[in-house]
Design a protein that fits this description.
About 25% of the residues lie in helices and about 25% in strands. By secondary structure, it is α+β, with helices and mostly antiparallel strands. The chain has two domains: about 40-120, Nuclear Transport Factor 2, Chain: A (Roll); about 135-240, Nuclear Transport Factor 2, Chain: A (Roll). The protein is flat. The model is unreliable at about 1-30 (pLDDT under 50). It is an enzyme of class 1 (oxidoreductase). Its EC number is 1.4.3.-. Its cofactor is Cu cation.
Length: about 270
Amino acid sequence: MAHSLKIFCCLFFFFLFSTLSIIPLSNQLEQHPLDSLTPNEFIRVQAIVNQSHPTTTNDITFQYIGLNEPDKQALISWLQNHRTTPITAPPPRQAFVIARINHQTHELVVDLSYDNIVSDNIHHGFGYPLLTFQEQNGASQLVFKHAPFLAALNKRGLKVEEVICETFALGWFGETKQNGRVVKVMCYYLDGTVNLYMRPIEAITVTVDLEAMNITHFRDRLVVPVPKAAGTDYRESEQKAPFGPELKGITVVQPDGPSFIIDGSRVSSNK
């Protein structure tokens, strides 16, 4: 449970900061055709895709959802007409989606004007879409139930509760060597530091098949000493001279208000 919590916290903050970039910064009076999808639109897209595949035998996972930008000429025409006739209807609002459905990668275009799927193509090329947080967390937790891995930690004299594992893509080995969705699990040791990347547990190789969610390969080649924790904690509270003194505060203000206006993704001068 401790391992899951640590990993979840890291992934949560990454997701939070990534998501903030797609949420409108203010209440928009009018939606521009190139504005990012809103949180409500994300929910609608997921509902439309889920409803279109009611017979799926496994959970549908969404690797990517983003705006499917309108045709350039249609956008230019709308912009020109909009200046003189503000009530001109904008181009259809669509989303581009990459999802895993029944162990296949689907590339979909969803029309938000009619709440339907315009196209649904199954990807047959090489490579595979982004990993989800659930997949990464599930794969990294498998090693803690794998007896050979626990034995390898014991051989090194490491505490299981101080070990954190993460997943990484295997890399590209040529088009003839595609073997499904497989990741490599690499582990690190805390025990006296929060800078886990300074204390890798070397020479242990673990690969996981994300579709079957099981360990497909394990190898413990040799014992490499884990670097010491001393001097690896980067937090300000742990720093000592000459890494100081603390910076003095600074304040930047515009007493008459900002010189710009932010409306969704648009920035204009506030004259």
